[in-house]
Amino acid sequence: MSSVPKPPPFDRADPLGLDDLLEPEDLAVRDTVRAWAGDRVLPHIAEWYERGELPGIRELAKELGALGALGMSLKGYGCAGAGAVQYGLACLELEAADSGIRSLVSVQGSLAMYAIHRFGSEEQKQRWLPGMAAGEIIGCFGLTEPDHGSDPSAMRTHARRDGGDWVLTGRKMWITNGSVAGVAVVWAMTDDGIRGFLVPAGAPGFTAPEIKHKWSLRASVTSELVLDEVRLPADAVLPDAVGLRGPLSCLSHARYGIVWGSMGAARASFEAALDYARTREQFGKPIGGFQLTQAKLADMAVELHKGILLAHHLGRRMDAGRLRPEQISFGKLNNVREAIEICRTARTVLGANGISLEYPVMRHATNLESVLTYEGTVEMHQLVLGKALTGLDAFR
């Protein structure tokens, strides 16, 4: 009779043994990004968050470019050409440090670079993508407007022909990286439908004032884009994007990163609660020895690792070319919602210390309030799934 192999010891950091699903190359990417975030972000992030700044963003972008984290899943033009799971693991590790850092990378690669890579001309790709992959040029993505978020088809920003040029007028709101971007991908209504335009920084009539007084994503550059009769040459338009298909496909790519990233914020909060519960003493013993605290920790661990398993499954489907937008909505809806609940539960384990920036929990919780609604609110993803399940459109 053959002997039954003995299972490995229980690993509180990986209770389901999910690392067994990863290839050595996947683990190398994860560990490299984790080490960078631990060295360059974690020692400073509480101060940055409290000040409401992301100092040295241009240097950070260049370092992320050197890691291959910008446009990570794109091929050619200096991009790493990594798999979807590897990109997801990078997002998880970056957001475990802070959602603002993951947003910097996500907007750069999954929105701005992805739009140029998928819909741009060869000349546009050669002009912008190598510098963006290296972090020498920062990009932003202008879709949301002051009065139009979930319904981009009603956007007021418009572009009109004037001889051989395009002239853009309008405003975009809540734009990550806007004030430091060297190029903005701006979506505008034209006589032919919605088109994407590449607007370089410094173009006459184009300004990007930074938005202040945020209580979420404080360690992130968030801006308004103002376009006042901005004149662009004919070759500024993305030639292969007409209609909402263009910006929505970019959003799907970015939402995939959020499926992973939200679990990074959840993991950091869970780990803080677990460490605290094993050392904080009340009534003569660590609070982790009480049944109610253990119930909280068990529930958090279950949802955290279910979410990581879901993200991994979606990543493998993306690598196989089988991932649908509805499945990305499934992942974002579940994982961000559960991540917020994990953060809130972790806060109760830490008690009053949970609101202190000495611990990461409240910072992650407030960041996730933005992640919950950007790139598709809860309601929009519920309706995406509802339509897919019933075959009936309830958006209008």
TrEMBL record:
<dbReference type="Pfam" id="PF00441">
    <property type="entry name" value="Acyl-CoA_dh_1"/>
</dbReference>
<dbReference type="InterPro" id="IPR037069">
    <property type="entry name" value="AcylCoA_DH/ox_N_sf"/>
</dbReference>
<dbReference type="GO" id="GO:0046949">
    <property type="term" value="P:fatty-acyl-CoA biosynthetic process"/>
</dbReference>
<protein>
    <submittedName>
        <fullName>Acyl-CoA dehydrogenase</fullName>
    </submittedName>
</protein>
<dbReference type="InterPro" id="IPR006091">
    <property type="entry name" value="Acyl-CoA_Oxase/DH_mid-dom"/>
</dbReference>
<keyword id="KW-0274">FAD</keyword>
<feature type="domain" description="Acyl-CoA oxidase/dehydrogenase middle">
    <location>
        <begin position="140"/>
        <end position="230"/>
    </location>
</feature>
<keyword id="KW-0809">Transit peptide</keyword>
<feature type="domain" description="Acyl-CoA dehydrogenase/oxidase N-terminal">
    <location>
        <begin position="24"/>
        <end position="136"/>
    </location>
</feature>
<dbReference type="InterPro" id="IPR036250">
    <property type="entry name" value="AcylCo_DH-like_C"/>
</dbReference>
<dbReference type="Pfam" id="PF02771">
    <property type="entry name" value="Acyl-CoA_dh_N"/>
</dbReference>
<dbReference type="InterPro" id="IPR013786">
    <property type="entry name" value="AcylCoA_DH/ox_N"/>
</dbReference>
<dbReference type="GO" id="GO:0033539">
    <property type="term" value="P:fatty acid beta-oxidation using acyl-CoA dehydrogenase"/>
</dbReference>
<keyword id="KW-0560">Oxidoreductase</keyword>
<dbReference type="GO" id="GO:0050660">
    <property type="term" value="F:flavin adenine dinucleotide binding"/>
</dbReference>
<dbReference type="InterPro" id="IPR046373">
    <property type="entry name" value="Acyl-CoA_Oxase/DH_mid-dom_sf"/>
</dbReference>
<dbReference type="InterPro" id="IPR052033">
    <property type="entry name" value="Glutaryl-CoA_DH_mitochondrial"/>
</dbReference>
<comment type="similarity">
    <text>Belongs to the acyl-CoA dehydrogenase family.</text>
</comment>
<dbReference type="InterPro" id="IPR009075">
    <property type="entry name" value="AcylCo_DH/oxidase_C"/>
</dbReference>
<dbReference type="Pfam" id="PF02770">
    <property type="entry name" value="Acyl-CoA_dh_M"/>
</dbReference>
<dbReference type="GO" id="GO:0004361">
    <property type="term" value="F:glutaryl-CoA dehydrogenase activity"/>
</dbReference>
<dbReference type="InterPro" id="IPR009100">
    <property type="entry name" value="AcylCoA_DH/oxidase_NM_dom_sf"/>
</dbReference>
<feature type="domain" description="Acyl-CoA dehydrogenase/oxidase C-terminal">
    <location>
        <begin position="243"/>
        <end position="389"/>
    </location>
</feature>
<dbReference type="GO" id="GO:0000062">
    <property type="term" value="F:fatty-acyl-CoA binding"/>
</dbReference>
<keyword id="KW-0285">Flavoprotein</keyword>
